[in-house]
Design a protein that fits this description.
The chain is mainly alpha-helical. It is built from 18 helices and three strands.
Amino acid sequence: MLNLLASEATWYPVLFDTPHNILRSVAIWLTLLLVICITASFIALRKKPSFPLFKKFAFIISISYAAILGLTFLIFNFVEEGIVPILFIPLTILIFVVAAGMILIVLKKNKTTVIIAVSIMGAAVIATLICMAIHFSSGAAATWYPVLFDTPHNILRSVAIWLTLLLVIGITACFIAFRKKPFFSLFKKFAFILSISYAAVLGLTFLIFNFVEEGIVPILFIPLAILIFVVAAGMILIVLKKNKTTVIIAVSIMGAAVIATLICMAIHFSSGAAAEANWLENKDVNSVALYVFGVIAIVAVILVAIFFDKKNKFEFDTKSIAHAAVAIAMSFALSYLRIVKMPQGGSITIASLLPLMIYSYAFGLKKGVFAGLIFGLLQSVQDTYILHPAQFVLDYPAAFACIGLAGIFANLTKLDKYPQIQFALGAIFAGVCRFIMHFLSGIFAFGTFAPEGTPVAIYSLGYQAAYVFPDLLICIFVGVILFSSKTVVGELKKLNPKAFNQAEEPVDNEDR
């Protein structure tokens, strides 16, 4: 036994052959000494008046020691063992931020401090997970956009990511600050118009870049460009002039644009040109399975929305239309701000699906599913990996209609005091449903991309999970912060008071 340990095992406490191992050996004995001292002091001082102060001191010492030790070993791994920068930098920041946040909470225990510290630590965790997903799941095939400046298109995307983040933070802060001001109604109208206009400009700009650089075909480019312009103009018209005639005209024109776009997309994708552009043949795509599961998926989503949303009628007034417009516009703008783009389609974004999730929470599943379906149609603008009409249905309308199910727990009375949990559970349910859609599409449409010897189901499972769940995690993190604010939750419930059993605020007849 001793011979085996001596020949094959590495005994670190007395290993001094390299600077790294010397540090490790010293750290082992130093940590052991620290644990013994703190434990002994804890036992000796537990009945003394100074015990609360000692506990705080012991916590800070332990956290600081762990952070210094972690950073030191991380630096040694970076220098000696070549840990890549995309892991080293976020891990270094994560260790520092978590240590600082925990010390701040120990020193100053109040709700504001905890919220700020936990938010910053959570952001650091998400950033680290994204970097790890890039490195381990996709390797060199994935693209990290926030700091990519190699082409004009990517420069625009990187700038847009930070600009959109700034815009969202600014509007959210003003929304909270102005909600009790007399000009709040005017600010909301201004914020709606600004959001819709920004999303339209961003969408048209990226669409033009896709047309020039990536060769999106004219039969898709022209109707999509017209659709973005018409939808934005119609939404702004509804926000500016709320009456029945305006809504009918705007919705009719937007509907005609959507139908025309769908016809053009059907012509292109059913012709087989989309598959050929991705070096595939008809035999590589399981058309029968795609059609079957496409129909089943749409029917299942509709049935869930109807069964679990009995309180809300499927009737759109100007309020629900205007807020749907803003939610779709914001999600569409944020969807262009990719942090990671996967090689066969799919991306991790800056909480692009959060506005749709919030809309579903406020207005119910039926309207949420409809808004998600419209967003799914617009989302197809970005992705050239559309091989088949039924695959298009699964990956776009069906997958994003699932996001409209995020409000499924909004009226769960047992969790009325915990809207953060209501939102988080709903978001998880919606995210899993979306994942299932992409998973099925991956099996029957993209199976030929699976590495040799890898089962298609395993390949699709790993590929879809690599971007769907990090994207979901970002939405949940930001959403939980928003739903922790009583102001935000109160304003959301005012949008649809009947569904939340609240007194309805008087509204003008023109809003009906």
